[in-house]
Design a protein that fits this description.
Layout lengths: L2 H13 L10 E2 L1 H5 L7 E5 L3 H6 L6 E2 L8 E3 L2 E2 L4 H11 L6 E5 L5 H12 L5 E4 L2 H7 L27 E2 L1 H6 L6 E5 L3 H5 L15 E2 L15 H9 L8 E5 L5 H11 L5 E4 L2 H5 L10
Parallel strand pairs: 1-7, 2-3, 2-6, 6-7, 8-12, 9-10, 9-11, 11-12
Antiparallel strand pairs: 4-5
Helix pairs in contact: 5-10
């Protein structure tokens, strides 16, 4: 990367707004605590059902994140359609004015998938609790086993799907080798290099760069500072002036990457939800090792 392009990338990363002033994408326990009990806030717990039953943030409703990952084919998942999104919103009582707060106990992995889903469905007010339930409890946050009354609502309009946030295999293949497109593989280095094979073929999409999703986190499960995350991506040439395509095996781990890039203010982040489960099993698609 030239000095000029690096400078441009850094300026873009700094000036592109990652969040609105009143609506951060990544929030602290204190921020959440201030909003407990508000009718316009929906807190969603994405931990296991058993863990939710043992305790959760007051007012939080439980959601199994797999309920929002319909299968496109065997082992390949997709984002919900507009109608599936409408039913999800109705089930959770989410209206266009609802602030949605997501948390889990997996380093934000499940929360990041639902963030992606809600982002694709066009919901503008979604935040992820940094550090999840572990940080909440470590800080003395309120904890309960009470299950809130079902918030379901039938008066929810169908959301408008942001199709430009999603990509299929053909779309990705057509853009291989383009300098204005960056492919980010969120899997482990062994998967990326083809030593750990989880499809008919091992390896990665040609031109992809490997940034394992766990690199986003500190040892305590909270996200690294934004400046450190930004530098990690810019140093590899993954800059906000490019269209950035995220993938992993099933786009579960890659949703963490999607969230981080949105947090950094990257304007064109695209999820290839078919990921390696599709690409690695199709002999007509090129691979690299």
């Amino acid at each position: 990367m030239t000095r000029l392009s690096l400078a441009v990338a850094l300026v873009l990363a700094l000036v592109l707004p990652a969040v609105a002033a009143d609506h951060p994408l990544l929030v602290t326990p204190a921020w959440v605590a201030e909003r407990l009990g508000r009718a316009d806030v929906r807190i969603i717990d994405l931990s296991d059902a058993e863990d939710y039953a043992r305790g959760h943030i007051p007012g939080a409703v439980h959601l199994d994140f797999t309920d929002t990952r319909p299968q496109a084919s065997e082992g390949v998942f997709r984002a919900p359609t507009a109608e599936e999104g409408r039913r999800l919103f109705a089930r959770l009582g989410i209206t266009p004015d609802t602030t949605v707060i997501l948390y889990d106990d997996e380093g934000g992995l499940h929360a990041a998938w639902l963030f992606l889903v809600l982002d694709v469905l066009g919901h503008p007010r979604v935040s992820v609790l940094d550090g999840g339930s572990q940080r909440w409890r470590a800080g003395g946050g309120a904890w309960t086993t009470d299950v809130p009354r079902a918030p379901a609502s039938s008066r929810v309009p169908a959301p408008r799907v942001s199709a430009d946030r999603l990509a299929g295999a053909a779309w990705v293949r057509e853009r291989l080798g383009r300098r204005d497109v960056a492919l980010v593989d969120a899997r482990t280095p062994d998967e990326f290099d083809g030593r750990d094979v989880r499809a008919r073929r091992g390896g990665h999409i040609p031109g992809a760069l490997n940034v394992e999703w766990r690199r986003h986190l500190r040892p305590d499960g909270t996200f690294k500072p934004v400046a450190a995350l930004r530098q990690m991506y810019v140093a590899q040439g993954i800059t906000p002036d490019k269209t950035v395509v995220t993938y992993c095996q099933t786009h579960h781990r890659a949703s963490h990457t999607y969230f981080v890039l949105r947090l950094l203010g990257y304007p064109r982040v695209v999820a290839y939800t078919g990921s390696w489960a599709e690409w690695g099993n199709r002999p007509d698609l090129p691979i690299a090792r």
